[in-house]
Write a structure and sequence with these properties.
Layout lengths: L3 E8 L2 E8 L3 H22 L4 H44 L1
Length: 95
C-alpha cells in the first residue's frame, strides 16, 4: 500500500489541506507554485484583482497548453508510427 501524507497547499491565498501520496508531494507543491506564479503574472500584467478572473485565466492558459501538448504528441505518434512502418518494410525486404 502506498503511503499518504497530509499537506497544506496555498493557492491564491487560500490554504487547502490535502492527503497525497508521498511520491506526489513534490509535484503538487510545484504545481501550486506554478499556479501562484501565473496568478501574479496576470495580476501584474493585466491589473486584474478579482481572484475568480485570475484563476479563470490561469485555468485557460493551462488548458491551452494541455491541448497543444496533446496535438504535438499525436503528431509525434504519427511520425513514429510512420518510421516504424518504414523500418518494418526494410526488414521485410532484407529477410
Amino acid at each position: 500500500m502506498k503511503e499518504e501524507i497530509s499537506i497544506k497547499v496555498n493557492i491564491a491565498d487560500v490554504v487547502y489541506p490535502l492527503k497525497v501520496l508521498v511520491e506526489d508531494e513534490q509535484n503538487i507543491r510545484k504545481a501550486a507554485k506554478l499556479i501562484n506564479d501565473k496568478i501574479r503574472t496576470y495580476r501584474d500584467d493585466y491589473q486584474l484583482a478579482d481572484k475568480s478572473n485570475l484563476l479563470s485565466m490561469v485555468a485557460l492558459q493551462f488548458a491551452v497548453e494541455i491541448v497543444q501538448f496533446n496535438e504535438k504528441k499525436w503528431i509525434e505518434d504519427i511520425n513514429i508510427s510512420a518510421d516504424i512502418a518504414e523500418i518494418a518494410q526494410l526488414l521485410d525486404e532484407n529477410i
